[in-house]
Every structure is written in structure tokens, then in C-alpha cells.
Amino acid sequence: MVIAKATVAMSHGGRTDGSRHGSHGRSHKGDSLADEAHEAARYLSELLAQPGPYRRLWQSRATRLRGEEINHRAVCRVLAPVVWAEGHEISEDSLKDRVSRALRGEVLSTQTLTWFVEAFGFARHEAEKLWALYLGAAPSRRVVAGRARAPRGNPELTGVERYRSVTVHETHRVGADGIPLDHRTSQVIEALVDGTDRYLFRFDTTDVVIRVLRGGTASELYRLDEHFHAVDILLRRPLAAGETASLEYVTSFRYPEAPPPVYRRAVFRRLESLRMQVEFHPERVPGRVWWAEWDDLEGDPVSLEEVELDDDLTAHRFLSVTEQAIVGFTWTW
């Protein structure tokens, strides 16, 4: 659940999910690798090269092996079913080129890293370390288990739980006028029951437009109950229990004026691997930025930790485990 003015998925003050987005003269991950992404690429190569299930998996797809060298075409064949299942029309040669650039440490995008994690099924601690390295976060275990109270009528805590979020990686962009531009979410969900065919994206405002980039299609916005609106992201195919799906979607905002300077996410069920980052426009740089935790959606933060923006005017945080918590960023202009 994100909060954006009072939303259930992102927040700008009281409401409630890639690579970096925005082109304000800044470098993007995916165009060239920063030091941290080089480290992620190196660790990815280590996982595939060392004896074990990942090496055996790509070796089983190889037509020819050369000693200990990683066969990039064989790795490409492991990734291909995941890529094509998402509807991407990428030839095997083009995919091999992407795999080769990633493993050589030349270009590694959020999307490509997601494909590796899904296709090879890396162990949880290995996937967490990959994302932590890629994001420049310390790979140590950051756990937030709070005592946040869900808002009255919150549909997230009612009904049969059909899926759970495994990972959520999101980027929130603020424009030169201080008004949120958009919010991009990459998310992996796991089906808990057979026949799971949709992901319910909830929020408490109608000032948004949802665009699904991969993994499904969005329904029309509808009223969920007296408190919430929602769209259904219809998956490309129904999932059996235990199967996963990867989603990427963009939430664009239509605020007539700047909302409070807050971007946060409410997590009432356990979530593993949460990455949040907020990007600011060079013409509207905040005076101070804090990482914060709240006990409820209406009150003030119960904890504040000041953070520094990086060279791309971005603040980010990586959490290994989040549960019963409302977390995010707040700032002053």
C-alpha cells in the first residue's frame, strides 16, 4: 500500500509503488554502470560461475562449453522464457547481447537484473545482496517491524489473501514546481492460491493515471469502497499457487497544487526486499531530507533520520524485511 496524499501505495502527505527515470541532465542506470552496479554485475557473474544449481542450470542449456567460462548464449536461454512470458518481442541474439553486456559489467538495467533474479531463482539472501549492491545500499540486513495501524476500512486486511508481494522497487519523481511527476514501481508477486489472475492496486485519490509497462494490463479505475479507489492489473495468464509474476507500472499524478512533502509506503503484511527512492529536479532541490517511520497515516513521524542526496539528487533506502510499518521520505524546501 503506497501513500500519496492519503493513498494506499504512495504518499504525499496522507494517502496511500527500474532503473532511474527522469532526464534532468542526470545519468541513468542502464546507460552506463556506476560503481555500485559494477559490483552487482561482478556478484551476478560469481553466482553463475561457481559450482552449484545456477551453473548447472545454464550448463544444461549449452550446446558447447569452454572450461569454466560462462556461456552467455546458454544464460540467455535460461532468461528467455521469463522475458517472452512478459510479452517482450526480443530475439535470442538481442537478448544474448544484453546478457553479455550485463555480465561484462558494461550495462545492467533494473529490468535485466529482475529477469536474472526470476529466471535463476536466486536464494533470498543472494537476491537481496544483488539489489543492495545495485542500489548502492549496504548489503547488511535492514529490518523494519513496526506497530503501524491500518486505516479504517483498509481492504488489504480483509478477504482471502490470493498473493503476496515478494519484492517492491520504486522510484518517485518530484518536478521543478515541487509537484510529484510520477511514481514507477517494479514488483514481483507470488500466487498463494491457484487461479490468481490479477493484482489489486489501491489508493485513496482519483488524481492519478496508472499505466502498466509490463506484466499485464490495467482495468478502468473504480471505487473499491467508501475509502478507497483501485485498478486491477490483469496478469498475462492466471498463476498457480507458488508461481510468480513480474509487474512494472507507472503512476502519474494530476495534482492542481503541491501536496505535503512526503513520499511513503504502508506495509501491513510482511514484505521482503523493499527499495524506495525519491528523485528531485535540479531546479527544486530540498533543503533537508529525512528517512521516516510513522505509526499511522494521520500522525507525525515517530522517527526521523536525516539523509544526504547523491549526485543525481536522489535519496534511497533498501530494506530486507518490512512488516506492520509505514516508511518513507519527508523533506523541507
Describe the structure.
The chain has 333 residues and is of the alpha+beta class. The protein folds into two domains: 2-26 and 144-332, Sandwich (Immunoglobulin-like), CATH 2.60.40; 35-135, no CATH class. Helices cover 21% and strands 35% of the residues. It is built from six helices and 16 strands. It has helices at 35-49, 53-59, 72-85, 92-103, 110-120, 124-135; strands at 2-3, 143-145, 163-174, 180-191, 196-203, 208-214, 216-218, 222-223, 229-239, 244-253, 262-267, 271-280, 288-294, 303-307, 314-323, 325-332. The strands form three sheets. A seven-stranded mixed β-sheet has the order 2-15-12-3-4-10-6, covered by helices on one side. It is globular. The relative contact order is 0.19. Mean pLDDT is 80; it is low at 1-33.
Which secondary structure elements does this structure contain, and how are they paired or packed?
Elements: E1 2-3, H1 35-49, H2 53-59, H3 72-85, H4 92-103, H5 110-120, H6 124-135, E2 143-145, E3 163-174, E4 180-191, E5 196-203, E6 208-214, E7 216-218, E8 222-223, E9 229-239, E10 244-253, E11 262-267, E12 271-280, E13 288-294, E14 303-307, E15 314-323, E16 325-332
Parallel strand pairs: 2-15, 3-12
Antiparallel strand pairs: 1-11, 3-4, 4-10, 5-9, 6-10, 7-9, 8-9, 11-16, 12-15, 13-14, 13-16
Helix pairs in contact: 1-6, 3-4, 3-5
List keywords for this structure.
single chain, 333 residues, alpha+beta, 2 domains, seven-stranded mixed β-sheet, 6 helices
Q: What's the gist of this structure?
A:
This protein has 333 residues and is of the alpha+beta class. Helix content is 21%, strand content 35%. The protein folds into two domains: 2-26 and 144-332, Immunoglobulin-like (Sandwich); 35-135, no CATH class.
